Amino acid sequence: MNACAAIDFRKADSELNAAWREAIASAQQDDRALDRSYDQRPTTEAKAARGAARLDRLRDAHCTVEGYQRSARRQHGIRWSTTSRRAQLTRERTRQLSGPSE
User: Fold this and answer.
1) How many CB atoms lie under 10 A from the CB of residue 9?
2) Burial (Cβ within 10 Å: 0-12, 13-18, ≥19) of residue 29
3) CA 64, CA 33: separation in Å to the nearest integer?
4) What is the pLDDT of residues 25-69, one digit of tens each?
5) pTM of the model
6) DSSP E strands, the chain
């Protein structure tokens, strides 16, 4: 069960990484229009990258807590529950980044 959950998470994470690459490319395009001679604020690309890292940490912490709650601290179920939930939240984030489906 743990191996299947890990494979599922890796697939979901790969899909999210592809969505992030598209979002970063879009941010880079937006940033090209900025006049950096006077606008020294962080670029959209930098903010997106920082946000992605923070969301990953938040997702992982959330899933760890949820895993403990779901498994009622039975050691054998924590890893599966946590990894399974990480895959689910990763797919939700991928849908958010990809925008509405057509």
Assistant:
1) 21
2) exposed
3) 41
4) 999 998 988 888 888 888 999 998 898 889 999 999 988 888 777
5) 0.76
6) none
